[in-house]
Amino acid sequence: MQAATPFPAIHEPGPQSAAPRSARGDIGEIIETCIEQTSEALVFSHAATQDEVSRAVETVRKSQAEGHPYDLLEAVAKVQGHTEEFMGGIVRTLGDRLAAILNPSPPLIPFAGKLIAPSSFYESFDHLHKIARVLLSPVIFAEDTDAIGTASANPVAAMILAEEIRNTVFKRFGIRPFVTAARLDYESWTFLSRKHFEL
Predict the structure, then answer these.
(1) Cα separation of 52 and 112, whole Å?
(2) List of domains in the chain
């Protein structure tokens, strides 16, 4: 019998696993939901200590409050003492640890950096573009409103945005799109974040 975890939506790998909870709120609440769920997942997966996560959260909240999106995985990597030279590999490792405890586990998409930004989707769903920006989870493809994909170095962020996309499209059109949440390597993630969000 497994011990209870403070993060009920994520469990050890296996049939009991579940996806992160949906934020269903304004942008500030969505940011907080992502921070909280990523924090819990980092500690639960033993990717970081509670102290490392707490210090990184403080930095992320301050940056977000100043209007500069900043992901917790990158902040934790810096708190752990990793330099920019090794950031790609460390953020990838942290993302792997989180993905291993999610169900479904978001796949790594190595070619995502070559995909064209879905400008018309962003124009039609400006609110989703703003959410994608604060979560640093670009929409990597959008086939009308039937099939949409989002990806991030942080699989929790990608899954939260995927759920927001499902809810928004259903609310507007009454259809439930097929939404994919995937992971990006650090280089593709930083490239797409700059391209999609003008960072």
Answers:
(1) 30
(2) 27-100 (no CATH), 112-197 (3.30.300)
How many of the other CB atoms lie within 10 Å of CB of 60? 23
Q: In the chain, where does DSSP find H-type helix? A: 27-44, 50-65, 72-79, 87-100, 119-124, 126-135, 155-173, 186-197
d(CA 183, CA 82): 21
- Spatial separation of the C-alpha atoms in residues 73 and 45, rounded to whole Å: 13
Are 129 and 45 in contact, with CB atoms under 8 Å apart?
Answer: no
- For 197, residues 6+ apart whose C-beta sits below 8 A from its C-beta are 69, 132, 133, 136, 138
The structure tokens listed for 92 are 């990838």
- What are residue 143's DSSP bridge partners? 147
- The tens place of each residue's pLDDT in the chain, 199 residues long, gives 333 333 334 433 333 334 454 445 699 999 999 999 999 999 999 999 999 999 999 999 999 999 999 999 999 999 999 999 999 999 999 999 999 999 999 999 988 878 888 999 999 999 999 999 999 999 999 988 889 999 999 999 999 999 999 999 999 999 999 999 999 999 999 999 999 999 8
